[in-house]
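agent> step 3/5: call structure_predict on target 'DNA packaging protein FI' (Shigella flexneri K-227).
agent> reason: downstream docking stage needs a structural representation; sequence fetched in step 2, passing through unchanged.
tool.input:
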Amino acid sequence: MAKKDDNLKRLRELAASLGREPDISGSAADIAQRVAELEEELANMDDTDIRDKSAHPENALTGYENEVISAQPETVIQNMDDLVTVVALVTLHTDALHATRDEPLAFVPPGMAFRVSAGVAAGMTERGLARMQ
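tool.output (status=ok):
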């Protein structure tokens, strides 16, 4: 059991280094596998990747990457003039329109400008997923 406790401690340390919440469930073998995977991931990263996360907060995870933002009835687009342009800070899966063309977008990569309703844009900016343009 001491080995599992040691691996849990190491797992927490590695997860903190990567800016993640560790999954501490499972058997001793499961925990040992996760430790090995995180150690390998850290070994593959060079020092500049780690420094970039602290020097450039836009590279850090916010914890909201997988949060689903559903359009509320008051935010459903009724008029194209109601759209605002924002720039993605992380890859987003959202219903949006291209910033300059009226093409629907399902995925928006970081740095790309796109249009959504003002309510959805406000939610994205509050969560650090996008910035107003």
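agent> step 4/5: record observation. The helical segments are 2-18, 28-44, 47-55, 118-126.
agent> proceeding.
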